[in-house]
Amino acid sequence: MTGPALFTFDDLADVRRFYRDADTSATPMVELPALARSVGAGRLLVKDESMRFGLPAFKIVGVRYAVSRVLSSSPQPVTALAAATAGNHGRAVARVARDCGLRAHIYVPAGTHPARVEALRGEGADVRVTSVGYDDTVRLLAGDAQADGWTIVSDTAWPGYEDVPRWIMAGYTHILDEVRGQGGFAGDPQRMLVMVQAGVGSLAGAVAGWLDATFGTSRPRLVVVEPEGSACLGASVHAGIRTTLPEAAPTSMVGLRCAEVSTIAWPILHTTLDHAVTVTDAEVDAAIARLARPLPGDSAVRSGPSGAAGVAALLAQCGLPPLAGRTVLVINTEGPLVG
Q1: How far is the C-alpha of 90 from the C-alpha of 127, rounded, in Å?
Q2: pTM of model > 0.90
Q3: Which domains does the chain possess?
Q4: Strand partners, 44
Q5: Residue 140: burial class (beta carbons within 10 Å; 0-12, 13-18, 19+)
Q6: Are 230 and 258 contacting, i.e. CB atoms less than 8 angstroms apart?
Q7: What's the CA angle centered on 79, arms 73 and 83, to 5 degrees?
Q8: Rounded CA separation 95/179 (Å)
Q9: CA distance 145 to 6
Q10: Dist. CA 219–CA 198, nearest whole Å
Q11: How confident is the model at residue 339 (pLDDT cuts 50, 70, 90)?
Q12: Percent of the chain's residues with pLDDT above 70
Protein backbone atom coordinates (compact mmCIF):
# COMPACT_ATOMS: atom_id res chain seq x y z
CA MET A 1 0.00 0.00 0.00
CA THR A 2 1.19 3.50 -0.76
CA GLY A 3 -0.66 5.30 2.03
CA PRO A 4 -3.80 5.06 4.18
CA ALA A 5 -6.00 2.35 2.68
CA LEU A 6 -9.50 3.40 1.62
CA PHE A 7 -10.91 -0.12 1.27
CA THR A 8 -10.14 -3.39 3.01
CA PHE A 9 -10.23 -6.67 1.13
CA ASP A 10 -13.48 -7.44 2.99
CA ASP A 11 -14.99 -4.17 1.71
CA LEU A 12 -14.26 -5.11 -1.88
CA ALA A 13 -15.42 -8.69 -1.36
CA ASP A 14 -18.76 -7.45 -0.01
CA VAL A 15 -19.32 -5.34 -3.14
CA ARG A 16 -18.55 -8.38 -5.29
CA ARG A 17 -21.01 -10.50 -3.32
CA PHE A 18 -23.71 -7.83 -3.63
CA TYR A 19 -23.42 -7.53 -7.39
CA ARG A 20 -22.99 -11.27 -7.91
CA ASP A 21 -26.29 -11.82 -6.07
CA ALA A 22 -27.91 -8.95 -7.99
CA ASP A 23 -27.23 -10.86 -11.25
CA THR A 24 -26.45 -7.77 -13.33
CA SER A 25 -24.94 -7.46 -16.80
CA ALA A 26 -21.61 -5.69 -17.32
CA THR A 27 -21.45 -2.43 -19.25
CA PRO A 28 -19.36 -2.58 -22.46
CA MET A 29 -15.64 -2.01 -22.70
CA VAL A 30 -14.74 -0.63 -26.13
CA GLU A 31 -11.26 -0.67 -27.64
CA LEU A 32 -10.39 2.22 -29.97
CA PRO A 33 -7.18 1.23 -31.83
CA ALA A 34 -7.25 4.07 -34.36
CA LEU A 35 -7.66 6.72 -31.67
CA ALA A 36 -4.92 5.03 -29.63
CA ARG A 37 -2.52 5.35 -32.57
CA SER A 38 -3.48 8.99 -33.11
CA VAL A 39 -2.55 9.94 -29.52
CA GLY A 40 0.52 7.70 -29.37
CA ALA A 41 -0.82 5.10 -26.93
CA GLY A 42 -0.35 1.36 -27.21
CA ARG A 43 -4.03 0.60 -26.56
CA LEU A 44 -7.05 2.71 -25.62
CA LEU A 45 -9.88 1.10 -23.66
CA VAL A 46 -13.13 2.94 -22.92
CA LYS A 47 -15.33 1.55 -20.15
CA ASP A 48 -18.72 2.76 -21.35
CA GLU A 49 -21.05 3.71 -18.49
CA SER A 50 -23.50 5.60 -20.72
CA MET A 51 -26.28 3.12 -19.86
CA ARG A 52 -25.87 1.57 -16.41
CA PHE A 53 -28.93 -0.21 -14.99
CA GLY A 54 -31.23 1.75 -17.29
CA LEU A 55 -29.82 5.21 -16.44
CA PRO A 56 -27.39 7.25 -18.58
CA ALA A 57 -24.53 7.42 -16.06
CA PHE A 58 -22.40 5.37 -13.69
CA LYS A 59 -23.76 6.86 -10.45
CA ILE A 60 -26.38 4.20 -9.74
CA VAL A 61 -23.72 1.50 -9.33
CA GLY A 62 -22.59 3.24 -6.12
CA VAL A 63 -26.05 4.31 -4.96
CA ARG A 64 -27.59 0.83 -5.21
CA TYR A 65 -24.89 -0.68 -3.03
CA ALA A 66 -24.90 2.18 -0.51
CA VAL A 67 -28.68 2.16 -0.07
CA SER A 68 -28.59 -1.58 0.57
CA ARG A 69 -26.09 -0.91 3.38
CA VAL A 70 -28.22 1.96 4.72
CA LEU A 71 -31.37 -0.17 4.84
CA SER A 72 -29.62 -3.10 6.51
CA SER A 73 -27.82 -1.00 9.14
CA SER A 74 -30.28 1.76 10.07
CA PRO A 75 -31.65 1.41 13.63
CA GLN A 76 -34.82 3.24 12.54
CA PRO A 77 -37.11 2.65 9.55
CA VAL A 78 -35.97 4.60 6.49
CA THR A 79 -38.85 6.43 4.78
CA ALA A 80 -37.15 9.01 2.57
CA LEU A 81 -33.82 9.41 0.79
CA ALA A 82 -32.33 12.83 0.06
CA ALA A 83 -29.48 14.10 -2.09
CA ALA A 84 -27.97 17.20 -3.65
CA THR A 85 -27.06 16.79 -7.29
CA ALA A 86 -26.06 18.32 -10.59
CA GLY A 87 -28.22 15.65 -12.24
CA ASN A 88 -26.87 12.09 -12.47
CA HIS A 89 -26.40 11.30 -8.78
CA GLY A 90 -29.82 12.61 -7.82
CA ARG A 91 -31.50 10.65 -10.57
CA ALA A 92 -29.80 7.49 -9.32
CA VAL A 93 -30.97 8.18 -5.75
CA ALA A 94 -34.51 8.85 -6.98
CA ARG A 95 -34.57 5.63 -9.03
CA VAL A 96 -33.31 3.50 -6.14
CA ALA A 97 -35.75 5.18 -3.74
CA ARG A 98 -38.62 4.40 -6.09
CA ASP A 99 -37.47 0.80 -6.48
CA CYS A 100 -37.37 0.47 -2.67
CA GLY A 101 -40.76 2.12 -2.11
CA LEU A 102 -39.24 5.23 -0.48
CA ARG A 103 -39.72 8.95 -1.06
CA ALA A 104 -36.91 10.98 -2.63
CA HIS A 105 -36.06 14.63 -1.94
CA ILE A 106 -33.55 15.99 -4.46
CA TYR A 107 -31.93 19.46 -4.27
CA VAL A 108 -30.30 20.88 -7.41
CA PRO A 109 -28.13 24.01 -7.73
CA ALA A 110 -29.12 27.24 -9.41
CA GLY A 111 -28.86 27.16 -13.18
CA THR A 112 -29.75 23.48 -13.55
CA HIS A 113 -31.38 22.94 -16.94
CA PRO A 114 -35.18 22.51 -16.65
CA ALA A 115 -35.02 19.26 -18.63
CA ARG A 116 -32.77 17.75 -15.96
CA VAL A 117 -35.19 18.85 -13.26
CA GLU A 118 -38.02 17.17 -15.17
CA ALA A 119 -35.93 13.99 -15.53
CA LEU A 120 -35.59 13.91 -11.74
CA ARG A 121 -39.33 14.44 -11.30
CA GLY A 122 -39.90 11.69 -13.82
CA GLU A 123 -38.25 9.32 -11.34
CA GLY A 124 -40.87 10.36 -8.75
CA ALA A 125 -38.63 12.74 -6.80
CA ASP A 126 -39.64 15.90 -4.98
CA VAL A 127 -37.20 18.42 -6.49
CA ARG A 128 -36.07 21.76 -5.05
CA VAL A 129 -34.04 24.12 -7.23
CA THR A 130 -31.87 26.28 -4.95
CA SER A 131 -30.50 29.78 -5.54
CA VAL A 132 -26.86 28.74 -4.85
CA GLY A 133 -24.13 26.56 -6.35
CA TYR A 134 -23.52 22.86 -5.81
CA ASP A 135 -21.40 23.01 -2.66
CA ASP A 136 -23.84 25.33 -0.86
CA THR A 137 -26.75 23.21 -2.13
CA VAL A 138 -25.18 20.25 -0.33
CA ARG A 139 -25.20 22.28 2.90
CA LEU A 140 -28.83 23.32 2.45
CA LEU A 141 -29.85 19.73 1.82
CA ALA A 142 -27.98 18.51 4.90
CA GLY A 143 -29.74 21.02 7.15
CA ASP A 144 -33.22 20.24 5.82
CA ALA A 145 -32.64 16.50 5.94
CA GLN A 146 -31.65 16.68 9.59
CA ALA A 147 -34.72 18.76 10.43
CA ASP A 148 -37.16 16.52 8.54
CA GLY A 149 -35.68 13.10 9.27
CA TRP A 150 -34.61 12.25 5.73
CA THR A 151 -31.71 9.85 5.11
CA ILE A 152 -28.99 11.60 3.12
CA VAL A 153 -27.41 9.62 0.30
CA SER A 154 -24.53 11.86 -0.76
CA ASP A 155 -21.43 10.98 -2.74
CA THR A 156 -19.45 13.75 -1.09
CA ALA A 157 -18.36 13.54 2.54
CA TRP A 158 -17.92 16.09 5.28
CA PRO A 159 -16.87 15.81 8.94
CA GLY A 160 -19.40 13.59 10.69
CA TYR A 161 -20.88 12.24 7.46
CA GLU A 162 -18.61 9.66 5.90
CA ASP A 163 -20.16 6.16 6.06
CA VAL A 164 -22.62 6.54 3.17
CA PRO A 165 -20.13 8.27 0.82
CA ARG A 166 -17.64 5.50 1.57
CA TRP A 167 -20.27 2.88 0.71
CA ILE A 168 -21.05 4.72 -2.52
CA MET A 169 -17.35 4.79 -3.39
CA ALA A 170 -17.10 1.09 -2.59
CA GLY A 171 -20.01 0.44 -4.95
CA TYR A 172 -18.15 2.27 -7.70
CA THR A 173 -15.38 -0.35 -7.53
CA HIS A 174 -17.75 -2.77 -9.27
CA ILE A 175 -16.84 -0.88 -12.45
CA LEU A 176 -13.17 -1.82 -11.99
CA ASP A 177 -14.09 -5.41 -11.18
CA GLU A 178 -15.93 -5.54 -14.50
CA VAL A 179 -12.95 -4.04 -16.32
CA ARG A 180 -10.73 -6.72 -14.83
CA GLY A 181 -13.20 -9.44 -15.83
CA GLN A 182 -13.22 -8.03 -19.37
CA GLY A 183 -9.42 -8.31 -19.61
CA GLY A 184 -8.73 -4.64 -19.11
CA PHE A 185 -5.91 -5.19 -16.61
CA ALA A 186 -4.17 -8.00 -18.49
CA GLY A 187 -0.42 -7.64 -18.81
CA ASP A 188 1.95 -5.51 -16.77
CA PRO A 189 -0.12 -3.08 -14.66
CA GLN A 190 2.82 -0.69 -14.45
CA ARG A 191 2.63 -0.24 -18.24
CA MET A 192 -0.95 0.97 -17.87
CA LEU A 193 -2.42 4.44 -17.41
CA VAL A 194 -5.83 4.87 -15.79
CA MET A 195 -7.51 8.23 -16.40
CA VAL A 196 -10.55 9.24 -14.38
CA GLN A 197 -12.50 12.48 -14.06
CA ALA A 198 -13.06 14.22 -10.75
CA GLY A 199 -15.67 16.53 -9.30
CA VAL A 200 -15.71 16.00 -5.54
CA GLY A 201 -13.36 13.07 -6.20
CA SER A 202 -15.58 10.16 -5.19
CA LEU A 203 -15.13 8.14 -8.38
CA ALA A 204 -11.46 9.09 -8.60
CA GLY A 205 -10.97 8.10 -4.97
CA ALA A 206 -12.75 4.80 -5.53
CA VAL A 207 -10.51 4.05 -8.51
CA ALA A 208 -7.43 4.99 -6.47
CA GLY A 209 -8.57 2.82 -3.56
CA TRP A 210 -9.26 -0.18 -5.80
CA LEU A 211 -5.94 0.14 -7.62
CA ASP A 212 -4.09 0.46 -4.31
CA ALA A 213 -5.83 -2.56 -2.77
CA THR A 214 -5.46 -4.67 -5.92
CA PHE A 215 -1.94 -3.86 -7.09
CA GLY A 216 -0.21 -2.03 -4.24
CA THR A 217 3.00 -0.34 -5.36
CA SER A 218 2.83 -2.19 -8.70
CA ARG A 219 -0.39 -0.39 -9.65
CA PRO A 220 -1.01 1.46 -12.92
CA ARG A 221 -0.30 5.18 -13.04
CA LEU A 222 -3.34 7.27 -12.15
CA VAL A 223 -4.30 10.53 -13.87
CA VAL A 224 -7.24 12.64 -12.69
CA VAL A 225 -8.95 15.06 -15.10
CA GLU A 226 -10.87 18.16 -13.96
CA PRO A 227 -12.56 21.10 -15.70
CA GLU A 228 -10.47 24.22 -16.03
CA GLY A 229 -11.69 26.63 -13.35
CA SER A 230 -13.06 23.88 -11.09
CA ALA A 231 -9.86 21.98 -10.34
CA CYS A 232 -10.21 21.66 -6.59
CA LEU A 233 -8.23 18.42 -6.53
CA GLY A 234 -5.38 19.92 -8.52
CA ALA A 235 -5.34 22.92 -6.19
CA SER A 236 -5.22 20.57 -3.20
CA VAL A 237 -2.37 18.57 -4.72
CA HIS A 238 -0.44 21.78 -5.42
CA ALA A 239 -0.97 23.03 -1.85
CA GLY A 240 -0.34 19.64 -0.26
CA ILE A 241 -3.52 20.03 1.78
CA ARG A 242 -7.24 19.75 1.03
CA THR A 243 -8.10 23.15 -0.43
CA THR A 244 -11.45 24.80 -1.17
CA LEU A 245 -11.66 27.02 -4.25
CA PRO A 246 -13.23 30.49 -3.84
CA GLU A 247 -15.70 29.43 -6.54
CA ALA A 248 -16.17 26.81 -9.24
CA ALA A 249 -16.26 28.27 -12.73
CA PRO A 250 -19.21 27.52 -15.03
CA THR A 251 -18.57 24.55 -17.31
CA SER A 252 -20.48 22.18 -19.57
CA MET A 253 -19.04 19.40 -17.36
CA VAL A 254 -21.74 20.09 -14.78
CA GLY A 255 -21.13 16.85 -12.90
CA LEU A 256 -17.52 17.92 -12.28
CA ARG A 257 -18.18 21.53 -11.24
CA CYS A 258 -17.14 21.41 -7.57
CA ALA A 259 -15.09 23.65 -5.31
CA GLU A 260 -13.97 21.15 -2.67
CA VAL A 261 -12.81 17.55 -2.54
CA SER A 262 -14.64 14.95 -0.47
CA THR A 263 -12.96 14.44 2.90
CA ILE A 264 -12.65 10.69 2.40
CA ALA A 265 -11.47 10.88 -1.21
CA TRP A 266 -8.65 13.31 -0.47
CA PRO A 267 -6.33 11.09 1.65
CA ILE A 268 -6.19 8.22 -0.85
CA LEU A 269 -5.86 10.56 -3.82
CA HIS A 270 -3.16 12.58 -2.07
CA THR A 271 -1.01 9.46 -1.70
CA THR A 272 -1.92 7.59 -4.91
CA LEU A 273 -2.48 10.19 -7.64
CA ASP A 274 0.33 10.54 -10.20
CA HIS A 275 -0.96 13.44 -12.33
CA ALA A 276 -3.81 15.99 -12.14
CA VAL A 277 -4.70 17.75 -15.39
CA THR A 278 -7.44 20.09 -16.59
CA VAL A 279 -9.48 20.31 -19.77
CA THR A 280 -11.60 23.07 -21.28
CA ASP A 281 -15.17 22.90 -22.52
CA ALA A 282 -13.88 23.28 -26.09
CA GLU A 283 -11.55 20.30 -25.62
CA VAL A 284 -14.43 18.24 -24.25
CA ASP A 285 -16.63 19.23 -27.20
CA ALA A 286 -13.88 17.96 -29.52
CA ALA A 287 -13.70 14.68 -27.59
CA ILE A 288 -17.48 14.16 -27.75
CA ALA A 289 -17.37 14.73 -31.51
CA ARG A 290 -14.43 12.34 -32.00
CA LEU A 291 -16.16 9.61 -29.96
CA ALA A 292 -19.44 10.06 -31.86
CA ARG A 293 -17.71 10.20 -35.27
CA PRO A 294 -14.74 7.90 -34.78
CA LEU A 295 -11.70 7.31 -36.92
CA PRO A 296 -11.96 4.44 -39.43
CA GLY A 297 -11.86 1.09 -37.63
CA ASP A 298 -13.12 2.42 -34.30
CA SER A 299 -16.62 2.07 -32.86
CA ALA A 300 -18.75 5.09 -31.95
CA VAL A 301 -19.26 5.92 -28.27
CA ARG A 302 -22.03 8.24 -27.08
CA SER A 303 -20.81 10.57 -24.34
CA GLY A 304 -21.76 13.66 -22.38
CA PRO A 305 -19.33 16.41 -21.35
CA SER A 306 -18.29 14.92 -17.99
CA GLY A 307 -18.01 11.48 -19.56
CA ALA A 308 -15.63 12.61 -22.30
CA ALA A 309 -13.13 14.34 -19.99
CA GLY A 310 -10.55 11.56 -20.12
CA VAL A 311 -10.56 11.39 -23.92
CA ALA A 312 -10.41 15.19 -24.03
CA ALA A 313 -7.19 15.10 -22.00
CA LEU A 314 -5.74 12.49 -24.36
CA LEU A 315 -6.58 14.53 -27.46
CA ALA A 316 -5.22 17.73 -25.88
CA GLN A 317 -2.09 15.96 -24.56
CA CYS A 318 -2.25 18.29 -21.57
CA GLY A 319 0.57 17.43 -19.21
CA LEU A 320 0.23 13.66 -19.57
CA PRO A 321 3.12 11.23 -19.10
CA PRO A 322 4.52 9.49 -22.21
CA LEU A 323 1.89 7.19 -23.72
CA ALA A 324 4.04 5.09 -26.07
CA GLY A 325 3.37 1.39 -25.51
CA ARG A 326 0.97 2.02 -22.63
CA THR A 327 -2.54 0.68 -22.31
CA VAL A 328 -4.79 3.61 -21.40
CA LEU A 329 -8.13 3.07 -19.65
CA VAL A 330 -10.70 5.87 -19.56
CA ILE A 331 -14.23 5.76 -18.15
CA ASN A 332 -17.09 7.27 -20.12
CA THR A 333 -19.11 8.15 -17.04
CA GLU A 334 -22.23 9.43 -18.81
CA GLY A 335 -24.13 9.48 -22.05
CA PRO A 336 -25.41 12.66 -23.70
CA LEU A 337 -27.13 14.72 -21.02
CA VAL A 338 -30.76 15.65 -20.99
CA GLY A 339 -30.98 19.35 -21.86
Answers
A1: 9
A2: yes
A3: 9-57+169-332 (3.40.50.1100), 60-154 (3.40.50.1100)
A4: 328
A5: middle
A6: yes
A7: 85
A8: 25
A9: 27
A10: 19
A11: very low
A12: 98
